[in-house]
Design a protein that fits this description.
Number of domains: 3
Bound molecules: zinc ion
Low-confidence stretches: 1-120
Helix content: 10-25%
Number of strands: 24
CATH class of the largest domain: Alpha Beta
Strand content: 25-35%
Structural class: alpha+beta
CATH topology of the largest domain: Nuclear Transport Factor 2, Chain: A
CATH architecture of the largest domain: Roll
Distance between the termini: 14 Å
Mean pLDDT: 78
Largest sheet: 10 strands, antiparallel
Shape: extended
Length: 490
């Protein structure tokens, strides 16, 4: 249960976080947490080994997705072997016995390599292993294939560029007939295989076959003693999974300031397997976090456009429409309201918040919206204004550089970089001047009540509620099981 903690793990967690913004692929919206995470790093070092967790492997909650091994996938044999085209009689055929591409697995030892021979329909597969210093030309030449054939293969499709990234130990599997390449199989990596086939018109047709990892659904729970990270590690969670959990609830819970001993969490998540070996954790499907007795629950939903997001079981977004702080700042150099203006040397109303940050620090769009101003704007210097629906707008000033490609009317997504911290216009040093307006009126960005992001769309609501119900039922089961375990005086 205990796991050695190393500082490098903490750093990697933070790096993963910083590099992990991925709004487009339906990943969690992380930005709101950026400042907290920098502080979380220090929490790693506070204490050790006192987080309690229970992991409940016995509860299998949902059917696993079937392992998708495409019939196109070929695991190349280690040595030259002869394979029957047709599936031998009596084998567990699936009705596609005459398919051109056989599926076979790597023989365990040479004694077992003798395959049943069907002389009328044999394919002579030859395997070549990439050696140090090899080139594609050399590999083709060793098979007796002309440079012209290699050239035709390479021109067939741009995906053949994968053939150029040779690493010693990789394998090519050739089917050559009458000195003509008929079929070439090249395993790009564990998931992707390139198949190049000669068709009846004597053209090479290229296809990349991608295997999907098998998703197994599992669950875990943890009780916090000192920090989410220690409890997460004790619960067997990877750094990424802990960050994802923090990202889901980070809009409601400040994981530095709000956390108390005894807070606990439960999650149902995917583990991704390939050939029976776990590759990595997948997505969190449902999670519960109890903070000072208050229960927060979230369910993941993927819509028809393949966009994933987290919602409360009744369909409210777990996110806010705006991130509170659109930049990773070092300090707040000026607050909202009356102040003495250092440049103008008089008292003036400050309509925003100034965040001091190093020149070049990325500035993020606080919410989804449309650019309504891009360019220089008097004392504001290089400025961007975003309109968010009819009611809200945000302004970002003194940029050193506006993100290239920005123009009026362009849509931006929450967390997307729109420019970089600078000191253009009337400014004494690099900082972001940030304004938040509601119906045209300036509001304090630090305290204004941020609206929730849009709830589940009406067209998905019924489907969402249906799926959420089953996930919530799983959380309930886990909750009861853990209470029972804890009551036994664990
Ligand atoms: Zn300012």
């Amino acid at each position: 249960m205990s796991r050695d903690y190393k500082s490098s793990q903490a750093n990697s967690a933070i790096n993963t976080f910083n590099n992990g913004h991925n709004l487009r692929n339906g990943k969690v919206h992380w930005m709101g947490l950026a400042a907290s995470i920098a502080i979380l790093g220090s929490i790693f070092f506070l204490s050790t080994d006192n987080a309690k967790a229970t992991r409940n492997e016995a509860l299998v909650l949902a059917p696993n997705t079937a392992l998708d091994i495409s019939s196109e996938t070929i695991t190349a044999p280690a040595t030259r072997i002869t394979l029957p085209l047709a599936i031998p009689q009596g084998s567990a055929g699936n009705g596609t016995g005459t398919r051109e591409k056989p599926t076979f697995s790597q023989p365990k030892n040479s004694a077992k390599q003798t395959q049943p021979k069907l002389p009328e329909n044999n394919i002579d597969w030859r395997t070549a292993t990439v050696k140090s210093g090899d080139s594609l030309a050399l590999i083709f030449a060793r098979q007796g294939l002309s440079p012209q054939q290699l050239d035709r293969v390479m021109r067939a499709d741009k995906s053949t560029a994968a053939l150029k990234r040779l690493m010693p130990g990789q394998q090519f599997t050739f089917h050559i007939d009458n000195d003509q390449l008929q079929h070439l199989v090249y395993k790009i990596d564990a998931l992707n295989t390139l198949n190049i086939r000669r068709n009846a018109q004597n053209e090479y047709v290229v296809a990349t076959d991608t295997r999907e990892m098998e998703s197994r659904i599992t669950n875990t729970t943890g009780v916090i003693d000192s920090s989410l990270f220690l409890a997460g590690m004790a619960a067997g969670m990877s750094d990424n999974l802990i960050m994802e959990l923090a990202g889901i609830f980070g809009w409601d819970i400040d994981f530095v300031l709000d956390i108390r001993s005894g807070d606990h969490f439960t999650l149902v998540y995917e583990e991704l397997y390939l050939d029976g070996h776990k590759q990595r954790d997948g997505n969190i499907l449902a999670a519960e976090f109890v903070n000072r007795g208050k229960v927060y629950r979230a369910v993941r939903y993927v819509d028809a456009k393949n966009r994933a997001d987290y919602y409360s079981p009744d369909g409210r977004s777990m996110r806010k429409a705006f991130i509170r702080t659109p930049v990773d700042f070092t300090r707040i150099s000026s607050r909202f309201g009356k102040r003495y203006h250092p440049t103008l040397k008089k008292r003036k109303n400050h309509h925003g918040v100034d965040y001091a940050a190093p020149r070049g620090t990325p500035i993020k769009a606080a919410g989804d919206g449309k650019l309504t101003y891009v360019g220089r704007k008097g004392g504001y210097g290089k400025t961007v204004i975003i309109q968010h629906g009819g009611k809200y707008s945000t302004l970002y000033a003194h940029m050193s550089r506006i993100k290239p490609g920005s123009r009026r009317g362009k849509r931006v997504r929450q967390g997307e970089t729109i420019g970089y911290v600078g000191s253009t216009g009337r400014s004494t040093g690099p900082h972001l001047h940030y304004e938040f307006r509601v119906n045209g009126v300036h509001r304090n960005p630090l305290t204004v009540r941020l609206p929730d992001a849009a709830p589940i769309k009406a067209q998905y609501k019924a489907d969402f509620l249906n799926k959420a119900q089953s996930l919530v039922a799983q959380l309930d089961v886990l909750q009861r099981t853990n209470v029972a375990l804890n009551d036994r005086g664990e």
